[in-house]
Amino acid sequence: MSALTAPAADPGTGTAVLHLTDVHTYYGAIHALRGIDLEVHRGEIVTLIGANGAGKTTTLKTISGLLHPRVGTVAFNGRDISHVAPHQLVELGIGQAPEGRRIFSRLTVFENLLMGGFTRSKAENVEQVEHVYQLFPRLRERAGQKGGTLSGGEQQMLAIGRALMTRPSVLLLDEPSLGLAPILVQQIFQIIGEINASGMTILLVEQNALQALSIAHRGYVLQTGQVVLAGSSQELRENEMVRQAYLGES
Q1: DSSP 8-state symbol, 80
Q2: Domains of the chain, each with CATH number or no CATH
Q3: How many angstroms separate the first and last alpha carbons of the chain?
Q4: I need a surface site. Which of 11, 36, 126, 169 has the fewest CB within 10 A?
Q5: How would you write 218-237 as a 3-class SS string?
Q6: Comparing C-alpha atoms, which of 195, 196, 176 is closest to residue 186?
Q7: Is the pLDDT of residue 205 over 50?
Q8: What distances in angstroms separate CA 239 from CA 50, 70, 209, 215, one per listed residue?
Q9: pLDDT value of residue 12
Q10: How many CB atoms lie within 10 A of CB 83?
Q11: Which phi and psi angles does 145 have, rounded to 5°?
C-alpha cells in the first residue's frame, strides 16, 4: 500500500471502530483479498474505490460476516469479529445496505422497514420508522406500496432505511448510486452526508469515485484485492493515478 500521507484527522473520537489487519479472504480457491489493512474511525465516511473485481464488495462481506477471512483479523470496537455470524454482527451494531438493494419485493415499504428492525423492540421500531421517514419523506408517501413497484431511487432509499432500522453504529453502503439517474445520485449522496452528520460512521463502496470522494473524509484504492493507495479524499482527488483511472481526467 502506498500511503499518500498520514490519515486525515478523525472527526470523531479518534477511535478505530473498524480495523482490518492483513485480511486474506477466499472464494473457494480464489484468493480475493490479499492482505487488506484499513481503519474506519468513529464519525468518518471512508470510501473504497476501485474497478469491478478489485475486492470492494468482498471487503464489505468480510466485515459483515458473510465471508470469513482465512488469514488476518477484522476488529469492531476492539473485538475480533473475524468469525462471528452475520446476525450477531447486526446485533453488535453493523448495518449494511447491499449492492442491488435486495429489498423484499412482495412486502410493503413499512413491512420492509420492520424486517430491518428485527433485533429491536416494537417501541424502538415505531420510533426508528419515524426517523427513516424524516430522512426519506418519499418512503412515508409509499409506506403501503409493495417494494417491487418502487422506482430504483426509492428502492435504494428503502435499502438504506432498512439498514438504519437496527440503529447501527457503523453503516456499510455498497454501490448506493448503481443504476440511478444523476439527479437521484445527488439526492442519495446528500442524504448519506446528512446521516453521517448525525454521528453515523459510514464505510462506502462506490463506483462513482468522484461522488464518493466528494463526501468522504478518507479513502482507500483497491486493485486486485490489495490496497494500493490511501489518504484523505482531497489527496486522492489530486493523485494523478486516481484522476486518470477513476475520475476520468487526463
Answers
A1: E
A2: 1-93+170-178+203-250 (3.40.50.300)
A3: 23
A4: 126
A5: EEEEEECCEEEEEEEHHHHH
A6: 176
A7: yes
A8: 14, 33, 13, 17
A9: 43
A10: 10
A11: -90, 145
What is the tens place of the pLDDT at every residue in 123-143?
A: 888 888 999 999 899 999 999
- The length of the chain is 250
Classify strands 30-41 and 16-27 as parallel, antiparallel or unpaired: antiparallel
Q: In the numeric block, which cell numbers belong to residue 4?
A: 499518500
User: What is the arithmetic mean of pLDDT over 147-166?
Assistant: 89
Contacts of 246 (CB under 8 A, 6+ apart): 49, 50, 209, 210, 221
Spell out where the chain has E strands. 2-3, 16-27, 30-41, 45-49, 71-76, 79-80, 94-97, 170-174, 201-205, 218-223, 226-232
User: pLDDT band at residue 14, thresholds of 50, 70 and 90?
Assistant: low
Confidence of residue 117 (pLDDT cuts 50, 70, 90): confident
Confidence of residue 193 (pLDDT cuts 50, 70, 90): very high
Residue with cell 471487503: 59
Question: What per-residue confidence (pLDDT) applies to 29?
Answer: 94
Count CB atoms within 10 A of the CB of residue 183: 8
> Rounded mean pLDDT of 173-199?
87
SS3 content of the chain, % helix, strand, coil (to 5): 40, 25, 35
SS3 99: coil
